[in-house]
From TrEMBL:
One GO term describing the cellular component: cytoplasm
Domain Survival protein SurE-like phosphatase/nucleotidase: 3-196
Keyword entries, A-Z: Cytoplasm, Hydrolase, Metal-binding, Nucleotide-binding
Primary site of residence: cytoplasm
Pfam families xrefs: SurE (PF01975)
Role played: Nucleotidase that shows phosphatase activity on nucleoside 5'-monophosphates.
UniProt name for this protein: 5'-nucleotidase SurE
């Protein structure tokens, strides 16, 4: 199997090292793992692409490339240049340092990389590691992802639905809980949730030279969330798996909206 890995924490992120290990185990001794990752951290860029300026790409080693762009740019760089003649069988994005469950999904560059792969017709999985007090004391804070990731990915490849749904290919979002591998209780198939009362906000800051800046701040990652959701599962030390697609249509409301149709 030929696997492409990317992330949004950057080419030197420790989570990418973990993902390379996971990918190597999945690919097997006869497989290949290719890395095309952002040259610099791209957290929070979502599904952004560098549409109005070129992307510099550099080869750092065998099958290892850094691109000055977003995770979605990196997927496009791999398919259009680096791996043009040998496209991947699977795209893995992560392992993100921090969760991408709940409302975080909408901001995540990790998700953006997997989504772009799905839009290109490829099987794709985003992987993220919840962080907290229990992971802070571990020698390897990505332990839960490293230990449980390979088997779960194999299960998804063998048993999950990879078909196109309403013209959009599915991809999967995996979040590992903030605990050691031995403390993981199991796996939950879960919908994307929402932490109650959590919003991003802008906080003004005045530099010593008098100039005014803004810091973008996130909210509590342990706030109560929708029961049975990905956040809820992660907070109970379960791995969450969420099927997703690049379709923001609210299909439940579409029929009622037809009363507005004219002509």
């Amino acid at each position: 199997m030929r696997i492409l890995i990317t992330n949004d924490d950057g080419i030197n992120a420790p989570g990418l090292v973990t993902l390379a290990e996971i990918a190597a185990e999945i690919a097997g001794p006869d497989g290949e793992v290719w890395t095309v990752a952002p040259a610099f951290e791209q957290s929070g860029v979502g599904h952004c692409i560098s549409y109005v300026h070129p992307t510099l790409i550099a080869e750092l080693g065998p099958r290892r490339f850094a691109a000055e762009g977003s995770p979605a740019d990196c997927v496009l760089a791999a398919l259009g240049d680096v791996m043009r003649d040998t496209p991947p069988d699977l795209v893995l994005s992560g392992v993100n340092r921090g969760n991408n469950s709940g409302e975080n999904v909408m901001y995540s560059g990790t998700i953006g990389g997997a989504m772009e792969a799905a839009l290109q017709g490829l099987p794709a999985i985003a992987l993220s590691q919840y962080m907290g007090p229990a992971t802070a004391v571990l020698d390897d804070p990505f332990q839960a992802a490293r230990v449980h990731g390979p088997a779960l990915i194999r299960e998804l490849l063998d048993r999950a639905d990879w078909t196109a749904d309403a013209d959009f290919r599915l991809f999967y979002n995996i979040n590992f809980p903030a605990c050691g591998a031995d403390a993981v209780k199991g796996i939950r198939a879960a919908a994307q949730g929402r932490r109650q009362g959590v919003r991003f906000e802008a906080e003004p800051y005045h530099a010593p030279n008098g100039r005014r800046f803004l810091w973008i701040l996130g909210g509590s990652q342990t706030a109560q969330a929708t029961p049975g959701s990905d956040v809820d599962a992660n907070m109970q030390n379960y791995i969450s798996v969420t099927p997703m697609r690049p379709d923001l249509t609210c299909h439940a409301s579409l029929e009622a909206l037809r009363v507005l149709e004219k002509g």
